[in-house]
Amino acid sequence: MSESFLTLRGVAKRFGATQALSGLDLEIRAGELFVVQGPTGAGKTTLLRTIAGLERADSGTITMGGRDLTTLSPAERDVALVFQNFSLYPDWSVRRNLEFPLRAPGRALDEATIGKRVAQAAAILRIEALLDRPARKLSGGEMQRVAIGRAIVREPRLYLMDEPLSNLDAKLREALRVELAVLVRRLGVPMLYVTHDQAEALSMADRIGVLIDGRLQQVGTPREVYSRPVSELVARQLGQPAINVFSAQRSGDRYLAGDGTPLCPAAPDAPSQASIGVRPEHLEISESLAELSGSAARVELVEQAGPHQVIVAHWAGQRVHVLIGRERQLGLGQRVHLRVAPDRAVLWKA
Fold it and tell me: Are strands 207-212 and 33-37 parallel, antiparallel or unpaired?
């Protein structure tokens, strides 16, 4: 496991009556792509701005590579922050936009070094042919590549990304998030990337931190956080369609839904009441008559979703989502029997 590179301890930030960050603890490892995922208003942008020095924490400490950043100015922190808006000078050429951070006061770089860094960034991002084009004539995807290029030329010790792909269309967003993930591995520089988009978080991250109301609710690999969320609140942040949640009562060695439908096994020491989470892909259509129990599910809607189908059905006293392959044909009003895939239910004490 890589050593810790960026460490936050007890970082808090308030704006008037709003507590944006609440005693936040976080560690980013060397070379890691760490994604902070959470809804609008969770404190994601405040977190980045505080690390960058654009906001001063009310309390807590921030260290990077063993150096205390807490009282340093933004320029002294050696981080590069990329915002969701492109922040380019529209009448400048791409080349001049890329050179801009290298010509800042105090940089004192010679022309050869500036030219080399711009050429390297342009090659990495495949924008060499755009260097002499005015920024106003670029597409959205090209603008975002240039914005990322302005961060790369600085050769910082840490990249901070504030939803940099959110203004792009879905297809371009998907392509660029793959490129960004590859870029981090290539550069070997850690990146803290914040997003509300669960697809970005799950596909890009080495580790994910789920941030809600200024608090990190859970940190882990994408698989860990998706498969074993520590709470219903975390579970609902990841997964499309959203996780199915049942209020359950233990009866002997089983948990039952409110209408008596069996859901999953219960250990002898399990709580008498619990919330049971089941991902849509973990609800299965039972083929064996021996397994049929409880109420049948009534199909209310069938949605085509590329290689899958999303079935909306009424089962166990509530509406549920079921993810199945395209090969199975189900019709509206059809009744089927469902079961929870073995060992796939997630339990939270009620």
Answer: parallel
